[in-house]
Please model this.
Amino acid sequence: MIDRTSISWESPADAHRLPLADRTPRLAEARRPTVIGEDMRLGRESPPIDLHNLVRTLFPIPRSITGAGVRTTLDILREYVPVSIENVPSGTCVLDWDVPPEWNVRGATICTLDGRVLVDFKTNNLHLVGYSRPVHDVVSRDELARHVHTLPDQPDLIPYRTGYFSRDWGFCLTHNLWLTMNDDSYRVDIDSDLQSGSLTYGELFLPGQVDEEVLISAHICHPSLANDNLSGIAVATALAIRQSKQQRRLGYRFLFIPATIGAITWLARNEMLLPRIKHGLVLTCIGDPGPFHYKQSRKGAEIDRAVAHVLRHSDHEHAILAFNPYGYDERQFCSPSFDLPVGCLMRAVHGTFPEYHTSADDLSFVEPEALNQSFALLAAVLDLLENNVTYARTDGRGEPQLGRRGLYRSIAGQKDAGGPSELDLLWLLNLADGKHDLLEMADRANVPVSRLHAAATLALRADLVRPVTT
Model:
């Protein structure tokens, strides 16, 4: 059996179109685990797959919070990582909610009475309001107007709208098209069904050496919107490939879930393992070329310090946002009785950019370099979490003599390659009191944590420090 976590496709898009028997993978050279200290430039690692190709492959699929589109998307992700597929039956009680009926759609049009197609779901799946009930009728323009959504301020764009619990129907179209539709009546056809089925999500767990986990979540319910959130799905997939090839101190749990109801469902089914989640990130809107924005967790946590540190020592413009109860699934993970240490990494912030939830959030809005930058930044964050250990001096009485241990020579040999300085080592030895982790040391010294980790490696080899189990 081929280990799909250690292969890459020449073209993921082309691979999906081939019959399964003809998908010949190219064995990828195993990625050597990143050694912090080799490269002090935080956030420069290349992803193991073509992220934009994966976004392009997933883009046409009509997704919603349930249905065949979600399952098709997860099937494609399984060509990259061994995601387990979970199906939760409709009607299942999950906290204060019930899993809704499954929705599937095969087509939807608005036509003139002489048969001219004006709006067609098959040309753009944003045209149909999500969870529209089936309709086959001739309606007046006045009646149609009650079911049409446009953007008068962005008249050339199609909005994205849903009605998960409304039991209604609707269409989204450009305002300019709507202004031309002046017939008395139109033919409306929606070939959809709402019936008992399941809510489907994907999960991948990579165990570590300790019972502490990093949670990475990406919502998988939006149809043809590239940044929100195919960008998050693609980068999370690449991170899963990367971490599967690392020697892991921490465990990593990757979730590909429908927004809100998917997170609530997962939380309801997994309360027993929640104490193991020590760090978490929701990934969304990370494919545009704008500045990074990090929304902190509700309670303040190590993940907040870690992301802020990596951003501060990167080349990227960024902003740190305080937690608020509006946004993505960090709201669910940070709800009061759970209050998990989960933040949200974005570039464009939801609801603040003109492409948001419109047809302008297309493949041209998501840039390959921006996706690669987001991957590299997150890889640096995960490396920081992996190596953020607390140390104590084996003998903390006074400053140790470095020269007789050959540490001056070691520092001189590494410094030109971006290794630790003498001052980095002195900071490490001074703060190695069993109370400061490497991230705290690095922030106090105002240097990248990678340099303190490299200094700790030297000090460990010289038996000057020991790791402390907290």
In short: The chain has three domains: 4-97+199-386, 102-195, 389-468. Residues 265 and 303 are 24 Å apart (CA to CA). Confidence is low (pLDDT under 50) at residues 1-41.
